[in-house]
């Protein structure tokens, strides 16, 4: 079934997702929500077809669409996802899905009340073939000694921050910052590959607004540690690694996964990745459509994915609390 798609948010990532969704052939954009009619219409004009533009989110979510993609500020994800679920609309929400564990558990309860609705966090990298090759390689290693995952790149909005402004993506008022925006990528990889840690600690470099501009998180497992390095105020070109004994997996970028190599430590190195699609969101869009359109056949796969999102949110919240970073959503 071709899914009738609505979107919340009209930025570059939303355009990339809609393009990816159309490439799969499983979706058709039918509705756009924006606070301003002009910006919504400008976005809709990028695509062909009969597309309605709304300035009331409730009107869009009751317009008959099948699924909504949410790419609004993080602080709004919970309420918008909750409205969608109550109206029987499937949800694809950009990471971080919600601000804290309380919000996630409320959505979990709503999903139990509306079992026909499916909820996905758009952690695109774990749906890519190169991540699956990485996972297979990790599972084949005889021993894990540790891992370091790096994702640090200079934000397009950091100049504005340095000039005295407070962009949404760097503001705790909008449940944002380095951990919530970029740290979630290496965190997803770590929990998907190794499960929940025994403990977690976050050493954040604070911004003047009390949020985090960069940081280092340590996930402690029974026999090894995983170090996550991420930030929005600098560019890092470090590779990510999974350490065995002699052997090592080298990853060009834990979020983009352009190249993944296995080095046996004895003179042999093998590239285990393949060139991915030009649009990195195609794989996740196709996966979500399959899970929506084949609910009976994919129930176990969907529940595993939902559990993974719950675990990521749990550790994400614990890391933020460890660093003393408070969001307004925490007080609700």
Provide structural commentary:
The structure is a single chain. The chain has 2 domains: 139 residues, 3-Layer(aba) Sandwich (Rossmann fold); 152 residues, Dihydrodipicolinate Reductase, domain 2. Strand 5, helix 5 and strand 6 form a beta-alpha-beta unit. With 332 residues, the protein is α/β, with parallel strands linked by helices. It has 10 helices and 14 strands. The chain has an 8-stranded mixed β-sheet, covered by helices on one side. Strands 3-2-1-4-5-6 form a 6-stranded parallel β-sheet, with helices on both faces.
Using brief descriptors, characterize the structure shown.
alpha/beta; Rossmann fold; Dihydrodipicolinate Reductase, domain 2; six-stranded parallel beta sheet; 37% helix
Q: Largest sheet at a glance?
A: 8 strands, mixed
Order of helices and strands: EHEHEHEHEHEHEHHEEEEEEEHH
Task: Count all strands and give the number.
Answer: 14
CATH structural architecture of the largest domain: 2-Layer Sandwich
Rg over C-alpha atoms, rounded to the nearest angstrom? 20 Å
Sheet with the most strands: spatial strand order: 8-9-10-7-11-12-13-14
Average pLDDT level: 97
């Amino acid at each position: 079934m071709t899914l009738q798609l609505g979107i919340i948010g009209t930025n570059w990532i939303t355009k990339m997702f809609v393009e990816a969704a159309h490439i799969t052939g499983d979706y058709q954009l039918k509705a756009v929500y924006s606070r301003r009619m002009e910006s919504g219409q400008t976005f809709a004009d990028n695509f062909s077809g009969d597309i309605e533009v709304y300035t009331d989110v409730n009107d869009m979510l009751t317009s008959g669409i099948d699924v909504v993609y949410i790419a609004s500020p993080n602080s709004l994800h919970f309420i918008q996802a909750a409205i969608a679920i109550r109206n029987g609309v499937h949800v694809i929400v950009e990471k971080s899905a919600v601000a804290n564990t309380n919000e996630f558990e409320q959505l979990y309860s709503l999903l139990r009340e509306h079992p026909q609705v499916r909820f996905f966090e758009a952690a695109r990298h774990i749906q890519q073939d190169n991540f699956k090759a990485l996972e297979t390689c990790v599972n084949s290693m005889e021993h894990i000694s540790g891992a370091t995952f790096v994702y640090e790149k200079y934000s397009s909005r950091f100049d504005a921050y340095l000039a005295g402004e407070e962009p949404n993506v760097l503001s705790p008022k909008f449940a944002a910052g380095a951990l919530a925006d970029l740290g979630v990528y290496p965190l997803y990889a770590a929990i998907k590959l190794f499960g929940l840690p025994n403990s977690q600690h976050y050493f954040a470099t604070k911004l003047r607004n009390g949020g985090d501009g960069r940081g280092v998180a340590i996930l402690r497992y029974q026999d090894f540690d995983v170090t996550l390095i991420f930030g929005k105020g600098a560019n890092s070109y470090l590779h990510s690694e999974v350490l065995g004994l002699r052997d090592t997996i080298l990853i060009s970028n834990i979020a983009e996964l352009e190249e993944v190599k296995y080095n046996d430590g004895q003179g042999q190195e093998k590239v285990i990745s393949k060139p991915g699609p030009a649009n990195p969101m195609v794989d996740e869009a196709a996966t979500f459509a399959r899970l929506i359109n084949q609910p009976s056949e994919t129930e176990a796969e969907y529940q595993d994915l939902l559990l993974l999102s719950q675990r990521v949110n749990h550790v994400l919240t614990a890391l933020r609390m460890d660093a003393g970073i408070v969001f307004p959503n925490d007080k609700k």
